[in-house]
């Protein structure tokens, strides 16, 4: 009885480790942006089977990319306080088992997209996986402080994946959604990188605060946030969205600008982390506002 109990609790804790490697919170936000891409692609309700198969396939391939990142980065992760407790550096999951898990997710996810959605979405999602797991993680992250600017393209692609899942075509409106996430990524990540600068320096990862200093990074965050405000206006200016989006995105952008300004000119120890946390709320609410605006269009 006791042996049975301990084997079931070790099975549960093993499931928890595999789940953790998929970066579930990141993948959930990626899926929200994909869902919004799907809904904005059509004037009518989208079919349930595209919605389910599309989100499952995109979710599986994004999760697979996150698992590969855990394996490739295990040395770096073991040297940073934020990541040293992850399942692979802790030895709770072997790299081999993690790669088998990532492979299963990749094959199943790809087949779902190829068989029940369309080939364009399957291929673009696979490109997103390779962009994050290979181009960003294996190369850019270790090579240049512009790593997250270029690598950010992989994380920005889900709205396009959602759009192509519904229409089978690449549309300029979908690319504009990608541009919003792409411009949002540098202030999102660099705020955290300032807070964790010592971690990155110790692990010898050339993140911007390590190579160019904290002040330069704060200026870059402010400039990208201003750029984000301009990019966020475009959907309204080209008639893609209505007044609800204009009001909602303006409020959110004022909030982001407030944090970016404070970080540069009146920062306390907490401001970088507050800016990072706000960035996540900003993107999440922005995409919900896009959705509301789409269905209640004045
Ligand atoms: C190259 C691009 C990106 C980089 C380098 C990056 C980096 C990071 C890092 C280092 C964390 C902290 C993770 C942790 O504490 O375990 C994080 C958290 C997060 N990121 Fe990003 N990110 C990127 C793109 C994105 C994108 C595109 C999204 C969603 C659309 C996103 C959503 C999130 C969320 C939701 C969290 C919070 C995770 C949690 O609390 O568990 N990130 N990001
Ligand atoms: C198919 C598709 C859309 C794939 C993209 C999927 C994906 C998981 C993108 C997220 C970007 C992200 C969290 C980067 C952080 O990596 P990091 O190594 O800098 O952060 P860490 O130190 O927390 O691991």
Automatic annotation (TrEMBL):
Subcellular compartments: Cell membrane
Main localisation: membrane
Keywords: Cell membrane, Heme biosynthesis, Membrane, Transferase, Transmembrane, Transmembrane helix
Catalysed conversion reaction: heme b + (2E,6E)-farnesyl diphosphate + H2O = Fe(II)-heme o + diphosphate
Pathway assigned to this chain's UniProt record: Porphyrin-containing compound metabolism; heme O biosynthesis; heme O from protoheme: step 1/1
Enzyme class: transferase
Gene3D superfamilies noted in UniProt: UbiA prenyltransferase
EC number: 2.5.1.141
Note: Carbon 2 of the heme B porphyrin ring is defined according to the Fischer nomenclature.
Function: Converts heme B (protoheme IX) to heme O by substitution of the vinyl group on carbon 2 of heme B porphyrin ring with a hydroxyethyl farnesyl side group.
HAMAP family: CyoE_CtaB (MF_00154)
The name this protein goes by in its record: Protoheme IX farnesyltransferase
Record organism: Paraglaciecola algarum
């Amino acid at each position: 009885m006791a042996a049975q109990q301990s084997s079931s609790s070790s099975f549960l804790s093993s499931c928890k480790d595999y789940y953790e490697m998929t970066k579930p919170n990141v993948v959930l936000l990626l899926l929200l942006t994909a869902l919004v891409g799907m809904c904005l692609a059509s004037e009518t309700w989208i079919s349930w089977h595209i919605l389910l198969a599309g989100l499952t396939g995109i979710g599986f391939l994004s999760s697979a990319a996150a698992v590969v990142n855990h394996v490739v980065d295990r040395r770096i992760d073991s040297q940073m306080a934020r990541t040293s407790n992850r399942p692979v550096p802790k030895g709770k999951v072997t790299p081999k088992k993690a790669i088998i898990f990532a492979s299963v997710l990749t094959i199943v996810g790809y087949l779902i997209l190829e068989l029940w959605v369309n080939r364009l979405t399957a291929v673009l999602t696979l490109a997103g996986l390779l962009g994050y797991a290979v181009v960003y993680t294996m190369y850019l992250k270790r090579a240049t402080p512009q790593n997250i600017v270029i690598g950010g393209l992989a994380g920005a692609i889900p709205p396009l994946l959602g759009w192509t899942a519904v229409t089978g075509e690449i549309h300029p409106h979908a690319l504009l959604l990608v541009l919003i996430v792409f411009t949002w990524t540098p202030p999102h990540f660099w705020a955290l990188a300032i807070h964790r600068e010592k971690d990155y320096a110790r692990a010898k990862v050339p993140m911007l605060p390590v190579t160019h200093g904290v002040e330069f990074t704060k200026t870059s965050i402010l400039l990208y946030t201003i750029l984000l405000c301009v990019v966020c206006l475009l959907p309204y200016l080209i008639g893609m969205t209505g007044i609800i989006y204009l009001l909602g995105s303006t409020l959110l952008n004022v909030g982001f600008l407030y944090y970016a300004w404070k970080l540069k000119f009146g920062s306390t120890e907490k401001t970088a982390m507050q800016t990072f946390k706000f960035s996540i709320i900003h993107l999440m609410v922005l995409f919900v506002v896009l959705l509301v605006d789409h269905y209640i269009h004045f």
